[in-house]
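Hi L.,

As promised, NAD(P)H-binding protein:
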Amino acid sequence: MIVVTTPTGQIGSRLVRLLLDRGEEVRVIVRDASRLAAGVRRQVEVIEGSHNDPEVLDRALHGADALFFVVPPNPNAPSALEHYLDFGRAGAAAVARHGVGHVVGVSTAGHGWSKPAGTLSAAFAMDAELAASGSAYRALSMPFYMDNLLGQVGAIQHGVLSLTCAPEQPLASIATRDIAAAAADLLVDLSWKGQANVPLFGPDITTPDEMAEIIGDEVGRPVVYQQMAMTDLAQMMQAQGASEQAVRDVTEMFAAQDDGINDEDWPKAQLAPTDFRTWCREVLAPAMRDAAA
């Protein structure tokens, strides 16, 4: 039995389908079962609730062989560190109680980074909790998610791409469908042991200027890159009601990305199949057509 958290998220929803296609028994922890696709709901065992709740975890992990663990986003959490530790500690304790043999977690590249990195540092803290559970643990450690750019469909329709890094700075990235595929491979073959970080990167590294050019090619309209100042990002978040700590967590995360937190992992990373141009053609361009319809 494989237990999957966040089964309606970008990664979890793909992972569930991959596991079902391989004939695996799947149990999901989901806050609202109505958000599961009807076809999926008929094929999985559903535990409703949050996976920082010990009672929910006890019901979900009874008899489980493996667990896929993702901390769900919560912009209203007091801090990213507290939020990740809340889930990580609850998950690790439940894994230990039930003797779950294998855990795959979604983390971030850059383990060993010594400077504050906001949400990325919080993910490292979660890894430490899960690795100490006694289970074999693999932290899938990724750079920037290509799929985050789907939040900029409106701006891209007006010809603008915005990030905080310099136009000429190389930026590693990964497609979420490749994260799901890597997680599925680990969860189906449980021959691995011990604890390890597994850097997983897309096969190419592009600068923001190059990303804008590729996007323009694939969506059929000119797109230019405009760098967003970190102060502007902070002011935008504050105007949207974000707390001072939430702003610090996000700006520290992007500052670490801009400072090269992913650089050491790139040479040793497992390379996923989806390059940036392919992702733009197969994911971003259709999303833009749907938005324009």
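The mean pLDDT is 94.

Thanks again for sending the construct details.

K.
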